[in-house]
Amino acid sequence: MKSFRTERDLLFINSVPRGACVLFKTGTKQYVFSANTGQIFQYADSLTSAVETIPLDSSDIRRYGELATLCIDSIEPGCSFDEARAAIQHDLGHIIFGVTQDCNLRCRYCVFSGEFEHYRKHTPAAMTGATALKAADYFLGHLSAQKKMVFATFYGGEPFLNLPVIKKVHAYLKKALKNRIFFSITTNGTLLDHEAREFVAANRIHLSVSVDGDRATHDQNRKFANGKPTFDKIVRNLECLKMADETYFNQFVGFTITITKGCDYKRLDNFFSIYRNAIKISPVMFYGSKNIEQVMGTTVNMDYLIEKFIEGCLTHAFEDSERRWKYQFTSGVLGRGLSMVHNRRVSDTPLFNGTYYLTKHCIPGASKLFVSSDGTFFPCERLDSYSHLAIGNIEQGVCARTSYRCLQDYAMLRNKYCRDCYLIDICDYCLQSASNGSGWDEQKMRFHCDLARVDFMGVLKLYAHILERDSTALDFMEKSRAMDWQKVYLKE
To answer: Whole-prediction pTM value?
Structure first.
């Protein structure tokens, strides 16, 4: 399998900056980002209070010790084996039930469509009530005593194909945990019939509905198994849900959007602006497929999206509960990277000295756990069918040694590709970025790491550009001020 699809892609990747610092510029100013300190230095221009700065000219960049080389000799897991084992036993806060591997849709880009090597395809396999309740008992037996709220998610395939098991698990966990547990379902939205709508609304279950945009955009990729379009069916179901309980719809229903090649960001923004719902956006997965192409470099109206997002930041719309909805889509596309940069560690002295610990990555099977339809345990729902990442089952529980070995193997890969990367302390790529479904994939990891380095060059430029105009424009992204989504969805 080739890592790079075209000569253009290869040249593009070869231009990616590496090292402890990167140089970038906005329209009028030039900067250097130091991975060693997390600081952004302005140079060759007058100083501004908008971005963290110290005096530094071009010649200083070449000799300034803190910028020269990352002082990282090795990358290691962020915990010891004993710490991991203790967390697995007593820190669980989120369980995801893969209640079926079947789906009534055949989305062109789905990883289970047969389009990707080393991945399972859709099967009729469904979780039984007995398996689900055993998984629920494991969850109850390993809950964190520190977490005030815990979470249960139902996942597929299309989970509403197995509504009886969902209802059984919901009743069981609700009885045991009362108002301490919060439920969610990830769905394609086509099976939200009267029974399903009554169930989710009455129990205030959060729905994450996959909608890719307007009819033409959505139906291009998301079709029923018989090839017919799905948009009209989903929208009718959503309208019925809203008419029956508008408060529930506005507070508990969110959209999951997959961005694909050639998307028109202005068109998508216009569509989602009619809703007051949370939005989660991700680019289509294309690595390992012969027919699905990457998004970067193919989209339309990105400049429009950037300008609208800047407008939202400079007018402080994201801090206003009545105005933020106008910018939901723009924030979904651009906000995550900017938030990662804004909340980075910043120090006056080097952050690294010898060993870098992977503290951003979860301990597999500790705080979060995915249970497949047959009762196999995986670290999360994104790793379903990555056979080398199976960490236990409902009969034996999570194997702490297998879980820790996953962290050690991943740390070994990170040692090969991350010790000289300017994103070392910002990037949150996880096990998925280095797995192909049947084993570790170093080629995939390198490919996605290089794409991230290119993406974050754009993020740094936008970040500095916004703060040049208003030093407080991104304060809403600070962790201490970020909106607590639990409060939003649980305020009733």
So the answer is: 0.90
